[in-house]
Amino acid sequence: MYLLDEGIEKTCALVIDSNATSRGVLCAHLRGFGVGTVRQTGNLQDARNILEHQVFDIILCEHHFDRSPLSGPDLLADLRRAELLPYYTVFVMVTGEATYARVTEAAETALDSYLLKPYSASSLGERLLEARRRKRELKDIFEAIQAREFAAAAELCRERFTRRNAYWLYAARIGAELYLRIENHAAARQMYDAVLEARALPWARLGIARTQVASGQLAPARRTLDVLIGEMPDHADSYDVLGHVQIEQGELQQALQTFRKAAELTPGSVTRLQHAGTLAFYAGESVEALDLLDRAARMGVKSRLFDPLVLVLLAMLHFDTRDGKALAQTQSQLARLIDASPDSERLRHFDRVLGALRVLHDRRVAAAVELARDLALEHQQPGFDMERGCNVIGLWVRLNSQEIQLDEMAGHVSAVARRLCVSKATCEMLVAAAQAKDPAAALIRDSHAAVSALAERAMGHSLGGQPRLAAQMLLDDGEATRNAKLIELAGLVAQRHRDKIDDSAELLSRAEALKQRYCQGGAPAIGTPRRNRSAGGLTLRA
Questions:
Q1: Residue 95 in 3-state DSSP?
Q2: pLDDT tens digits for 280-292?
Q3: Helices 504-518 and 484-496 sit at what angle, rounded to 10 degrees?
Q4: Element (H, E) at 13
Q5: Which of 129, 191, 334, 360 is most buried (most C-beta within 10 Å)?
Q6: pLDDT of res. 169
Q7: What is the model's pLDDT at position 214?
């Protein structure tokens, strides 16, 4: 045994390879280099579970796995999306293919190294040595990130990039991501542009699209993505961002096609299966949705990457097909998640939805109506978001489809819609949750039209020299409906015309109080991941 470098004996490594012989050889090499602890697994699902609960300094992962829809790059992408891979971890992909596509993929995923079979112990050692040297060189950046000092870390990256110090391109990529994270879109765009000028890399172009999305420039972002996808039609990350843009523009059918393509490109990605399955559900493609969401649940229900909203959508699909056995199984899966996280209010909400579906399936109509009524009244609470609104509307639509005349449905659906309809995208999302069925769809669109009409009338008063009347109207209706658009618009009017309004301070204070209570998080979109995502990520959470 010889020590590869200083501190190697304190490191922990994970080897992921389905071939026991190859796995054993890699482990032997690592121990020969002096690595302190070496773990191994031959299964990507097991590897994902291990990595969700333990941090490693070195990961050696085979690219291809027989009889598995997942690949090594799929695992890497999922870990990064879920922020489960520390910056200081060295990730090396091992493969027997030396094709141009593989080399390009390595560059695009920013691997620490790429090891081609057959290899020698010395070649593996050289790659690990170089990757660890780069980690040490950028240690100040990684430490700032670890301390969650993202602005400081971004500035360190910018300084290294500007001076063209060692590993400047690697630092530029980290810095641009950090600027996006702290919502300094101009700085992120500047860095991506500089990288493109220095070296035309597709990930930099994708970064530009993400900064455009984050700053609300959806049309330019779409043009950037169209060019990138035209040049690289197999670049799955580009489809993720494009799907987000299409959802923001209320184009759910186009978004479904986009996420369907991303899922086809990476069939082992739990998050992309969830995206595509969720879009298929809301687009009314029940058969496809059932297939995609069921695959996501089977692959990832024990993973942190899994979003339990999938179980709610599956329960609704099982209810629609009158599959009581599958509905009960889904409820049992959710119960296990609740046992693991008993304090989760979100899971308890899901449990109430599934409980209502179950009793309705058993023809206990009165109990189902009572549960659905309680869920609908949650629209008055501060934490009521698009996810809950879609679940409530989906439940009431199913109640109304059981040959039961429910006069109160109109009131509940309209109240939810008035709370959540802040844009065309949110309106269409709620319509999709209603499976585009009348009368629910008509009630939602009427509610959105009423919110928009009130905002227009108020702005007419403001432009007509009556800003106080405009602000008062918006505040009164905003407080009654809890609609974020009306509340925020009231604050803007009171702020802009504060010199013309005698009690502007009182109006502003009231607007701010309502904003803090009902407008946290902004207008949500559709999707499944629970974590905070960079631009291009999707979430139903508001």
A1: strand
A2: 998 889 999 999 9
A3: 150
A4: strand 12-16
A5: 191
A6: 79
A7: 83
